[in-house]
Amino acid sequence: MIPAKIDSISITMLEEKGEESIVDWFDQHKQSFYPLGWSYLRTQQQMEELFYRSIIKVHKELPRFKRETAFETRVTSIFIDTCRELSDNRSLQASVESEPRQDLFKALDQLKEYEKEAIVLTYVKGLSKEEAAHLLQVSVEKMKEHLFSGIQSLKKEMGYGSAMNGCKEYHKDYTDYLERAMDRSKKVGFEVHIYHCQECQEDLASFQDVMLTMLNLTERIEDFHVPSDFMENVKARLAEKEKQRKQKNKKRIRMGIIFASVSALLMAIEVFTGSFTNLYYTWTEENQQLRAFLQQDLGERLNLEAESNGVKIKINSAIADDVQTLVFYEIEDTDEDNQYVMNYDDGVLVENEYEIMSHEANPRYYPPDLQSDVNNEEKNVYQGKISLLPLSKDNGTIKLKITKLQKLIHDSSDRNSIMAYENETGEWNFEIPVTKQPSIEYALDEETKVEGIPVRFDKLTIAPTATILQYAIKNEQTEKQIDFLNIDNLEVNNKKVKADMYGSSSSQQDINWSTFQTHFDPLFGEKPKEVNVQFGSIYLTVQDPKTIELDASKEFPQTFEYAGSTISIDKVEVGQPTNVAISNHEIKNRAYESLQFQIVGEDENEPSSMEMNSEGVLVDKNGIEYDTYEIPVAYEEIEQPRYFETVQSVKLDGNNAGEKVIPKRLEIFGYNTTKYLDDVVKISLD
């Protein structure tokens, strides 16, 4: 049970002694909190993480503790919130194999969250219904409903069956009666009813059996063994965190001294050579991408800061041109070892967007940079960039409001890959001064053919933040059409820039030509005389119609030949919905990667809805297959990847309610395929 609340003097003493006093308190109460944590989590690693985070959070929140609230009540609330956070954290859940769990924990895993928490706080932690209701922020009556629902669910999990045939108005009284917590007058009335109601007698008996079984298990949990080195491991992590914090402060002081020492020398060099700017940023700017902009005098360092909920954001610089406004930022978690990134579409708002920004272009997507030395050096700091709309004016001040960040959840086996994101809310406000840098456009006049299809190059834009090639494809009514042309790189003045896999866009200019843009890395200060365009691959649609009659009364699977392959119709199941499955697992030398088709019913009409799902396999240039759920390397590192659909499943619904679709025929229009190219197009700009 929760003891008497700690007085204000005790809380003041805890504040004065710092984090060490919180560690000691948890060490003294670990036997009470340890089984509570196991109700949510599955491994010893997660349990250590739970105590580690809880101690940090309690220490951080301690100044805001209300003096009239019992100390352990507030700690328990923080502890439960941390349990929820970790139990929802998929990367921690998948980090190691689950360890053997006691029977009660296994049963609790099957309950709904509100049922489990009601039972855990009441029977594992030993709180009263009033205290548990207060922690869960529900009424006592709602708490009783949750307990009844939870025990009823446990009843089913423990093999007592799920049926409750007794009178519903008495269900909520079962727990109070069995716990001997019922008022005498109400108890008499309840017992009179039970005496005369056979169904309620049977319900109460089975309910009592479940509660006794659960209480026996709970008594065994009270003797739950806490490993001897458990708290020592937690303390070691906290000590390492404090050590890193001190080292970071020392590093900043040391860098300040070094900077002061070399500043005079650099200024002297500037006087004689004019190269101060380049050397200055070489010494002082660790972000290589930002350094390149600053050395070209395309922006300035800003060092704007804002902090919310222990997370500090710095805006280091902003580079604006006709393509985008590129904002370089740094996010530091001052309390824990977390890395955060910004997402333009979620939680990032330019409050004066319509006053100073143009909507003729779209912001670009930049994925988290996990390879940089900066982002691998410290676990609680992330340096990144985010693309905003370009400026509509030559200069201005961006009023940037950030209300949400995304926490990177790393794969435990590979820090350079991300398992998931979690949101962190707060409020960070900035006023960012920006000046739009000029861009240069070059008109192009070059045409070639790819797979017999005309491709025209129209324009090259060299902007400070990106290089953009605009081209068009003429898809006439022929057997083949190019859906997408992938350009690998550009070579300008013997300098190659790679295409940005996230930086392509398309727009229809006229009825004959489809216009596309591909973005590349910046070409600082280059004045091109010739541009070499290296093609990468094309994604084609090939028209090759074929009709296959379907008869649900025949046995399946059935096969047919198409595009040099044998395709199987595995099933045609008429119902609501009707299910059709088509497969081809032979991918060697296969002409197509996916099929384009429809299914027509007996009434010669298409179904009102056709839901399609597919399975497939990823294959590289050498025929090596990759499980799409467990690719060992980044997709862009696979040499000439192709994705072959092996199974296509279709669900068909009729046009009217209750109507079954009876498939009559499968109509294949054609297929899609990828081809890799070695072509280079040389374009003169004279």
Structure write-up:
By secondary structure, the chain is an alpha+beta fold. Helix 9 packs across helix 10 (140-157).
Instruction: Give the strand tally.
Output: 24
Strand content: 25-35%
Largest sheet: 10 strands, antiparallel
- Average pLDDT works out at 80
Question: Can you count the helices?
Answer: 18
Structural class: alpha+beta
In terms of per-residue confidence, which ranges show pLDDT below 50 for 5 or more consecutive residues? 1-9, 90-98, 262-277
Quick one: overall form?
Answer: flat
Helix fraction, binned, reads: 25-40%
Task: Give a brief outline of the structure.
With 686 residues, the chain is of the alpha+beta class. The chain is 33% helix and 34% strand.
Fill in the keyword field for this structure.
686 residues; alpha+beta; 6-stranded antiparallel sheet; 18 helices; 24 strands; flat; disordered N terminus
How are the secondary structure elements laid out?
Blueprint: H1 8-17, H2 19-28, H3 30-38, H4 44-61, H5 71-87, H6 90-93, H7 103-108, H8 113-124, H9 129-136, H10 140-157, H11 174-178, H12 184-196, H13 198-222, H14 230-273, H15 276-284, H16 288-295, E1 304-308, E2 311-320, E3 325-333, E4 340-341, E5 348-350, H17 353-356, H18 373-377, E6 381-388, E7 395-411, E8 414-435, E9 440-450, E10 453-462, E11 467-474, E12 480-492, E13 495-508, E14 513-520, E15 530-549, E16 558-562, E17 565-573, E18 578-583, E19 594-601, E20 609-619, E21 625-626, E22 642-653, E23 663-676, E24 680-684
Antiparallel strand pairs: 1-2, 2-3, 3-6, 4-7, 5-7, 7-8, 9-10, 10-11, 11-14, 12-13, 12-15, 13-14, 15-23, 15-24, 16-17, 17-18, 18-22, 19-23, 20-21, 20-22
